[in-house]
């Protein structure tokens, strides 16, 4: 049924398997993400800074570095429809919003704890940030004021809205996915997704599926409407830390402490390609309109193995 598509994709990546590496930071990169128009890539690092790169066909150029956070930048998230707005969550107990047009921070929102997760609702109106104490703070993106806070009595890992911003999802330490209505945050469903900690969650661009990655080394694919698990991707051997759907929803990238990033065909689970890496991978992100995958690993400096490299890579360029 899908064999022709699978063959085409496998063949595409045989000739488009080049990775390009960019040194962006002086310490490890925790998070990468593309702007909604695909023209820019942002990276957030343990060195407290955010770097912005511009993509021109096959070339990525570093545009600027934003400083201001007093702690590690653990996760970043672009506005879903406004290509110039970027939000960052930091261990310095704040969220910052950056405007690429003026190249500076346009808002700093102080929160109660060390922030580790951030997500921007697809309708652009709300930013949610989760901290190490399992408190989720909801910020009004128009006024940059805190709207509400929710304290959970379980380990909250990644958080996300669905594609219509009507439901809010969070993954937890007991392997569950909590689905809450938004904005009233009433629990609608609790899915027992994995036997181990549920680490990451991602919605596919078509709105049909979401996927979760777990400490059990599995990635599960769910039907958004039926809330049924459709298939499980089993090629990883270590806890799955980060996942990303490609722009057309055909591919799912998964990464962990395995020394490869797995690229799977969503509808069948078939392997399309894999990317060999030298260290644990923290973050992966597909480009919003091209088959290019940005990622960052726990790489060490080539000359000083004790030092983190602070680099990121983009895979999927044509092999010369």
UniProtKB/TrEMBL annotation:
One of its GO terms (cellular component) is THO complex part of transcription export complex. PROSITE patterns: WD_REPEATS_1, WD_REPEATS_2, WD_REPEATS_REGION. The keyword Repeat applies. Keywords: Repeat, WD repeat. It comes from the Eukaryota. Gene3D superfamilies: YVTN repeat-like/Quinoprotein amine dehydrogenase (2.130.10.10). GO terms for biological process: mRNA export from nucleus. PANTHER family: THO COMPLEX SUBUNIT 3 (PTHR22839:SF0), THO COMPLEX SUBUNIT 3 THO3 (PTHR22839). This is THO complex subunit 3.
């Amino acid at each position: 049924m899908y064999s022709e598509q699978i063959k085409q994709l496998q063949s595409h990546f045989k000739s488009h398997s080049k990775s390009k590496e960019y040194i962006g930071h002086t310490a490890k990169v925790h998070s990468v993400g593309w702007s909604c128009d695909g023209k820019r890539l942002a990276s957030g690092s343990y060195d407290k800074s955010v770097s912005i790169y511009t993509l021109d066909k096959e070339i990525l150029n570093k545009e600027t570095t934003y400083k201001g956070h007093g702690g590690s930048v653990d996760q970043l998230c672009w506005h879903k429809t406004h290509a110039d707005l970027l939000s960052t969550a930091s261990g310095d107990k704040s969220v910052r919003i950056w405007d690429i047009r003026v190249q500076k921070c346009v808002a700093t929102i102080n929160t109660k704890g060390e922030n580790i997760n951030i997500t921007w609702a697809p309708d652009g109106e709300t930013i949610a940030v989760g901290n190490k104490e399992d408190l989720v703070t909801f910020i009004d993106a128009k006024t940059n004021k805190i709207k509400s806070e929710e304290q959970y009595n379980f380990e909250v890992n990644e958080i996300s809205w669905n594609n219509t911003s009507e439901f809010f999802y969070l993954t937890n330490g007991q392997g569950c996915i909590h689905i809450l209505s938004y904005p009233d945050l009433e629990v609608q469903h609790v899915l027992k997704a994995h036997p181990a900690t549920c680490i990451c969650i991602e919605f596919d661009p078509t709105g049909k599926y979401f996927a979760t990655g777990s400490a059990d080394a599995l990635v599960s694919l769910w039907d958004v409407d039926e809330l049924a698990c459709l298939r499980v991707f089993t090629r990883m051997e270590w806890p799955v830390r980060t996942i990303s759907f490609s722009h057309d929803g055909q591919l799912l990238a998964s990464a962990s402490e395995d020394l490869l990033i797995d690229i799977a065909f969503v509808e069948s689970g078939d392997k399309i390609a894999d990317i060999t890496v030298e260290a644990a991978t923290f973050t992966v992100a597909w480009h919003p309109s091209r088959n290019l995958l940005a990622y960052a690993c726990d790489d060490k400096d080539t000359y000083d193995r004790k030092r983190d490299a602070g680099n990121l890579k983009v895979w999927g360029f044509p092999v010369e």
